[in-house]
Amino acid sequence: MSETKEVIRVQQIRKTYEMGKTKVHALQGVDFNVQRGEMVAIMGASGSGKSTLMNIIGGLDYPTSGSYFLDDIEVNKLTKNQLADIRNQKIGFVFQGFNLLARTSALENTELPLLYDRSKRVKKHSEAARQSLERVGLGDRVDHFPNELSGGQQQRVAIARALVTNPSLVLADEPTGNLDSKTTVEVMALFQELNEEGVTILLVTHEDEVARYAKRIVELRDGKIIKDVPQTPDSAAKDLEELLLRRSEEQGAKEPETAQAD
């Protein structure tokens, strides 16, 4: 990875969609930077422009005007092939729906980005994938298929897949949207652990309960940033510990009642 401190620099990004005679201004002059090692939550209601911004940052769409730099590379000036290489080598994607191949093991799912890496930076694909799965706590599940894993474990495989190329940025789009409350906290604890190791994370969410674990909140409305503030994040690991303790106490309180009924 590049050693530059600034991972993302967005300058006056505008995105306009033309629908017949109507112009929709999805982004209207957005400016913001992300430093290496940050964990930033991008928030906004439907229609705020956050999905459009994430598509541009993820190299899935071009802005109408403005500049976007990733590791000092001006992404919006790249060709489609160059853009594909940037997506593969510098951005790790985590999606709400996991996007795992059903008939493929956890190890093989994690290997996939390496198969498409034309730079051939990583020679031993299986070894790199295994190390990535171990990093997210799934070293004992490498041969399991998605239908043999819980929702939280499937998302961990997706996170391992995002990390396997050692990207400059992990871009997580509503990564807890399909998870229950306990698993959500577990996944956020993993993101915080990875962030403490130096992984830069950009998290798209509409949930305050998820955003409170980030170090910074960027909120969009009508295609403009209306809030960009640092915050002291809550500890997901501590919240998980308290949640498990509370559930254990609740279960313990139910057992005497069951015994009495018998």
Q: What is this entry, summarized?
A:
This protein is α/β, with parallel strands linked by helices and 262 residues long. The chain has eight helices and ten strands.
Could you characterize what this model shows?
With 262 residues, the protein is of the alpha/beta class. The protein has one domain (6-255): 3-Layer(aba) Sandwich (Rossmann fold). Helix content is 38%, strand content 26%. The protein has a six-stranded mixed β-sheet with strand order 6-7-8-3-9-10, with helices on both faces. The chain has a four-stranded antiparallel β-sheet with strand order 2-1-4-5, with helices on one face. A hairpin with a 2-residue loop joins β1 and β2. It is globular, with a radius of gyration of 20 Å. The mean pLDDT is 91.
CATH homology group: P-loop containing nucleotide triphosphate hydrolases
- Give the helices and strands as they follow along the chain: EEEHEEHEHHHEHEHEEH
Return residue spans where pLDDT drops below 50 for at least 5 consecutive residues. none
Strand order of the largest sheet: 6-7-8-3-9-10
Which properties best describe this structure?
6-stranded mixed sheet, 4-stranded antiparallel sheet, alpha/beta, Rossmann fold, 262 residues, 26% strand, globular
Topology record:
Layout: E1 6-19, E2 22-35, E3 39-43, H1 50-57, E4 65-70, E5 73-74, H2 80-90, E6 91-95, H3 106-115, H4 125-135, H5 151-163, E7 169-173, H6 181-196, E8 201-204, H7 208-211, E9 216-221, E10 224-230, H8 236-261
Parallel strand pairs: 3-8, 3-9, 6-7, 7-8
Antiparallel strand pairs: 1-2, 1-4, 4-5, 9-10
Helix pairs in contact: 3-4, 3-5, 4-5, 5-6, 6-8
